[in-house]
Amino acid sequence: MDLQIKGIIPPMLTPLDSMADIDEKGVRNLVSHLLSGGVHGLFILGTSGEAPGLSYGLRKEFISLTCELVNKRAPVLVGITDTSFEGSLEIANHAKEAGADAVVVAPPYYMPITQKEMQAYLENLSRELPLPFLLYNIPSHTKLHLAIETVKKAKELGALGIKDSSGDMLYLYSILDEFKDSPNFSIITGTELFMPELIMNGGHGAIAGGANIFPGLFVDLYNAAKQKDFEKVAVLRQSVMKLYKTIYNVGNSPAKIIIGTKCALSVLGICNDYMAPPLTRFSASERKKIEMYLGEIKELL
Amino acid sequence: MDLQIKGIIPPMLTPLDSMADIDEKGVRNLVSHLLSGGVHGLFILGTSGEAPGLSYGLRKEFISLTCELVNKRAPVLVGITDTSFEGSLEIANHAKEAGADAVVVAPPYYMPITQKEMQAYLENLSRELPLPFLLYNIPSHTKLHLAIETVKKAKELGALGIKDSSGDMLYLYSILDEFKDSPNFSIITGTELFMPELIMNGGHGAIAGGANIFPGLFVDLYNAAKQKDFEKVAVLRQSVMKLYKTIYNVGNSPAKIIIGTKCALSVLGICNDYMAPPLTRFSASERKKIEMYLGEIKELL
Amino acid sequence: MDLQIKGIIPPMLTPLDSMADIDEKGVRNLVSHLLSGGVHGLFILGTSGEAPGLSYGLRKEFISLTCELVNKRAPVLVGITDTSFEGSLEIANHAKEAGADAVVVAPPYYMPITQKEMQAYLENLSRELPLPFLLYNIPSHTKLHLAIETVKKAKELGALGIKDSSGDMLYLYSILDEFKDSPNFSIITGTELFMPELIMNGGHGAIAGGANIFPGLFVDLYNAAKQKDFEKVAVLRQSVMKLYKTIYNVGNSPAKIIIGTKCALSVLGICNDYMAPPLTRFSASERKKIEMYLGEIKELL
Amino acid sequence: MDLQIKGIIPPMLTPLDSMADIDEKGVRNLVSHLLSGGVHGLFILGTSGEAPGLSYGLRKEFISLTCELVNKRAPVLVGITDTSFEGSLEIANHAKEAGADAVVVAPPYYMPITQKEMQAYLENLSRELPLPFLLYNIPSHTKLHLAIETVKKAKELGALGIKDSSGDMLYLYSILDEFKDSPNFSIITGTELFMPELIMNGGHGAIAGGANIFPGLFVDLYNAAKQKDFEKVAVLRQSVMKLYKTIYNVGNSPAKIIIGTKCALSVLGICNDYMAPPLTRFSASERKKIEMYLGEIKELL
Fold first, then answer.
1. C18 Cβ under 8 Å from any chain D Cβ
2. Inter-chain contact B169–C194, Cβ cutoff 8 Å?
């Protein structure tokens, strides 16, 4: 297995017409938008993909459709995190059949658990997985900030790397330091603003939500960071900062980044802005703001 | 619909032989143990029932089996909380068919959400539920401490009452005060030590995990509280306090109360102590402690 | 030393004309109001007394004045918590000279520390204290929730008891259980709504902020709880609940309970409503609310 | 006033022989060690300086001694944060008289307060300060994460800049973005690992605890970052990372970074390792570790 996770991998949104219906045209548009933007892979059914809010049936349908549309032009990673061990495996097996390249695993998120319990869980799960896996740290949603020991255990069990969405830069530096002699173990940030530093310090890429809207911006930023072109990084980062201050900052839902991103894709004519429960789409006035912000950012680019 | 939730309602554990197999003999024993202990109802597939860790198939099988065994001798409440709206409905519909009496609803627990989002969620869900529902507040697991406004909204939508497992006694007093003129709206604590005060101040009952082991103790405590027999309450409460200090306090898992309770049931010969992932059963030395503690508590009773 | 801390001990507010000037007439009025209300002691320079916001000079002046006015009619407890060990001792020595009866000690509150560090601190401090001490648990302000082990250590070092303002009823029950064979070790709640249960379960009293305004109400509630007159407790508790919902709930400062209480004393003509920095007195419209609420509560009494 | 805060400014430790006695020889050695290491200024009586644990008398003595020893060779900043407004002013006035250049202000740290309360506090305090001030954000100790609005207010009131010790890199990026058109408003990190990125993105310096031990390392790192010499930054940062993993990581006190740093200075023969209460110096075995780690880091340099 010589898949290495790196570059810009958007956590692809899940276009929906209702909680039971995929917006197929939207998926088609979005896949095309992302691949033509030059991204290095897709991560579907993560937090931004609203996976836990979707039925297993819908998740499987979405996996099949996406893999078919991507048609091996880029690696597809599939989030399988679920509170049920068997549920996770069911999704993983479907991903394998559909032609996905890897799965992404975070702690089962209902029960608060210990690092030891998580390590045992990974040991049991990894044994049955039909595809290689990327570990996923997102304590705001799973209640567990994965200790370095747990990441090391995952690596021993064959993990391809870790995606960190803790927002904790000290942690990210510790991870970089810990695995500096294992360049094939991918260190991926889920906090897009941290990407340039991560790349310049030996990390591998970003699962950057904003790349759903502006894939090219993030690919350019990644390349500038790879080339240590600091001036260009500084300029491009301003656009990312602008995203944080505008599109990511409408309304007061803790999920406003995801809702704002889907609304932006809808404004761009790419897909429907329907959100799976418990989230709800933006109001007309909130959508107006997104429209305005999109215009402002496009001028920067 | 004149079901009123009250009294001692154990959050029944889910006896398992493996993650895919129900321990049927264990279920039979446990139902019999609880009903002969005089409990006023059963709450299955809650947090103590490890519901999120079980596949939908297993959950349904367990609902059917329990309803059949209970055979209308006591109300059966079924936890349907799930991150997927459709998943919740699927379980609810199965519960209706199996003959359950009500469902229990907590916030979908992956995405942190606002009170407004939760209210909209309840509005949409309640419209489709085939059975009446009890609202369930457990912020340690769902990340949302239900505001009084949200509880009032649930009541408007027909909720039978609220189970509060926040451990926040000031909140419980606020709830009691808010609904003091609605005696049919059940106020149930999930913190068993708070039960006597709750009952003496107009509350209705407890979903008390310890009643899995000692149903009679909790029923006696409930009756003593109903009769305002303060001396008896004081004596019986000592046994509950002892549970906290012993059986609930082995190991260091955040789920140690549930694991300890299942281990105790296993020591008593009632059911298997298998835990669904990500939890794991106690080690031999931890089990020894549970054995010893059970002996000590039995002497108190 | 046979002082036992019990009953209703208001955490007396500090009447001020400015950050440098005590409102002497206000102090006189307030001491008189409290003692004629039948309280069992006074606790000055606690959190409600805004002690950390006052200069040492002002604190000493206030101690002297209060002790003189009380003139041994009730025990006076003096808060000495400070981030500086020498500062704490300085206040304690002044309290001794002024005729106070005991001091109150919480963790020094700038540095987050461990239980072990707190135990060592208590060991060193208690050795030099000129008066007996009450331990004070208020993790919201000191960042340390005192473990049972730390409370036991304090008791070994001679502590008269513990005041708990954590709001954590499970903790309070654990404390009651732990010290049930030491009836002289006073267990005092700083959460006034918990007082009846505390008293009925073997506890000793309350440092109840609301007793600044309505000392008689709290003394009556204490007596009803002592006599296990449950009906009377239920009636009186409604007035306390009303305080929480009204006077304690104006504005959005985390210190709104203290600001509201001082405003109420000002409305009653007892003292000035000046708050030491960083707090600020209520606006005219907030004060109007306090006036209205005071009227409503007086009707209940 | 044209002081600009920038470069490496160690938060100088306070060498003590006891809680009442300054280790004067240690202060002399430490000032000399830091200045000869090339630092751009000194920040005394901050968190690392254990200021809140020291009496006012000792703080004043330390200010006078340090200012005298520095003798205008570098700017001296003095922490004046205190829970008492008058206490803060007293220290500030002494700092002015002793010849210090600026003061450092964090929220008064006992009462949790709102942003509005903090803004009013700054407005009142700044009016009376005899020296310019640097704002200081350290929510772990003060309970208040200063909002951008509060930082803007401080700037309007004349603040020289902000020191951020939140460890929150997203916040730091927001601050950089907010003040990008005010290059004289100094943005200083208290998280030393973040310094290179901060400098390369327009920030001004670091109040870096590790510069107490290795001033030259941090000055070199600062210069490399200023010159955008990324290779050199990467090499030097490894030594800083090593500090985190070793000297900052002994024992389990939340203050272990400060205790470890003082122990290291003691091992180096610079000053006594006495800690003001509630902290305590390392045990012999912990000191052994510090000795070993110092050796390892020196080899890297």
1. no
2. yes
